[in-house]
Amino acid sequence: MSKFNNQVVLITGASAGIGAALAQEFASQGANLVLLARRKERLTAIATAIDPTGNKVLTIPCDVTKDGELEQAVALAHSKFTKIDIAIANAGLSVKGNLEDLSLADYRLQWEINVFGVLRTIYATLNDLKQTQGSLVVISSVKSYLSLEGDSAYSSSKFALRALCESLSKELAPYGISVTHVCPGYVATEIRRVDNQGIFHSDWQDHVSPKLLMSPEETAQQIVQGIERRQREQVLTYYGKLVVLLKRYLPWLLSWLISQMKIKEKHKKG
Ligand SMILES: NC(=O)c1ccc[n+]([C@@H]2O[C@H](COP(=O)([O-])OP(=O)(O)OC[C@H]3O[C@@H](n4cnc5c(N)ncnc54)[C@H](OP(=O)(O)O)[C@@H]3O)[C@@H](O)[C@H]2O)c1
Asked: 50-88 pLDDT, tens per residue?
């Protein structure tokens, strides 16, 4: 039997991509799920596909940028499942563009979702995780190690998450809480088809070569293994591992390669 059987897993940003795949993976291992995101109809479709009876899945519309919404969601989760063993702060947006293309409002939205949204998730679930000696999981990025031209908003938010997790893994260890900082490389999700304001465009193409993309399902399987091992950090995809290795040991080579290959992020339309 899986370690996660009947454990309660709360996931933010569960209506798409990595969050939805994590919901499927934990469900296949017998976990109870609390799924949060803004798009209710998407959450309902995912929950119904996982468990048509609704016994093991609770969906709650929740915007991680709104003070109080995570606390309300946790209260609802208690009324159905009484506890939370694993909290996964996954909801995210990727704002792209050079400083001069962006405004303070763009940076603020990026940090509200990617950094303060994670902090709201942590504050709302901390008491539960203390009681269950559970796991806090933060879905960050390889961009928590590398900031390309045109990527200051997104990368700065992910660098902040790496610092947050490094401190919290020490601060929360005495309570028996594990902290896992997850750094995926490119995953085949909708994130690059969502504009800087958070609107999804079904007609946009993902500019990343399919050869570099990991599937959300494989990503979720690897993340769940990392959570089971209570791993402190997890870097996913082969080139993601290469980037982090070069950044740590040969940063000048990584900078040279990036400038030779003219790798940069472009402003998203919209
Ligand atoms: N895909 C990649 O290549 C990649 C690489 C590295 C790291 N990551 C990270 O992985 C995480 C998941 O991204 P993804 O690739 O799965 O993207 P995605 O397919 O665009 O999904 C993003 C999820 O976040 C939710 N979300 C966005 N804004 C929200 C808000 N204000 N409140 C609540 N939920 C919100 C969305 O739901 P609603 O719109 O319904 O609210 C959606 O469920 C992010 O933190 C991202 O930075 C992704």
From this structure: 999 999 999 999 999 999 999 999 999 999 999 999 999
Total residues belonging to the chain: 270
* Residues with a CB atom less than 6 Å from ligand 1: 12-19, 37-39, 42, 62-65, 90-94, 113, 139, 141, 184, 186-187, 189-191, 194, 198
CA 95 / ligand 1 centre spacing (Å): 12
How confident is the model at residue 269, as a pLDDT? Answer: 65
* Structural domains of the chain, ranges and CATH numbers in brackets: 8-260 (3.40.50.720)
Which atom of ligand 1 is found nearest the CA of 112?
31
Parallel/antiparallel/unpaired status of strands 32-37 and 178-183: unpaired
**One-character DSSP codes across 206-264:** P-S-GGGPBPHHHHHHHHHHHHHTT-SEEE-SHHHHHHHHHHHH-HHHHHHHHHHTT--
The whole-angstrom separation of Cα 56 and Cα 109 is 33
pTM above 0.90, yes or no: yes
